[in-house]
Amino acid sequence: MGRILAIDFGTKRTGLAVTDPLKIIATPLDTVRTFQAIDFLKKYHETENIEAFVIGMPKDLMNKDTDSTASVRSFINLLKKNFPDHTIHQMDERYTSKIAMAAMISGGMKKKDRQKKENVDKLSATIILQSYLESRL
């Protein structure tokens, strides 16, 4: 039984979140530099079985591609090449950064910690993953 790993792709940093082995709860994992993401995922997969990936797909309010969509699709192709036996699900990532920021504020996170973009990235990945888990119910 493997975990589901979520990816909030960015051109500089990529936020990661993961489920528990029972695939009930989404938890922030880490934020990595994007050029190191595949190596990080390979190492993580050596110790924790990854069953599937969920990646945030950027769309605008009219559900059209954004400037970032092509980069995400390229990363998906890289994932498929490196993890050919894994399912890759795409989830709408609209508003995840704003939701993540609001969650940090309501959770009482200090301003200096909220300003660290890596915290927003991994929390956004967690929101993407939790949305995916809820959509399966």
UniProtKB/TrEMBL annotation:
<dbReference type="Pfam" id="PF03652">
    <property type="entry name" value="RuvX"/>
</dbReference>
<keyword id="KW-0540">Nuclease</keyword>
<dbReference type="InterPro" id="IPR006641">
    <property type="entry name" value="YqgF/RNaseH-like_dom"/>
</dbReference>
<dbReference type="InterPro" id="IPR012337">
    <property type="entry name" value="RNaseH-like_sf"/>
</dbReference>
<keyword id="KW-0378">Hydrolase</keyword>
<keyword id="KW-0963">Cytoplasm</keyword>
<comment type="function">
    <text>Could be a nuclease involved in processing of the 5'-end of pre-16S rRNA.</text>
</comment>
<dbReference type="InterPro" id="IPR037027">
    <property type="entry name" value="YqgF/RNaseH-like_dom_sf"/>
</dbReference>
<protein>
    <recommendedName>
        <fullName>Putative pre-16S rRNA nuclease</fullName>
        <ecNumber>3.1.-.-</ecNumber>
    </recommendedName>
</protein>
<dbReference type="InterPro" id="IPR005227">
    <property type="entry name" value="YqgF"/>
</dbReference>
<feature type="domain" description="YqgF/RNase H-like">
    <location>
        <begin position="2"/>
        <end position="100"/>
    </location>
</feature>
<comment type="similarity">
    <text>Belongs to the YqgF HJR family.</text>
</comment>
<keyword id="KW-0690">Ribosome biogenesis</keyword>
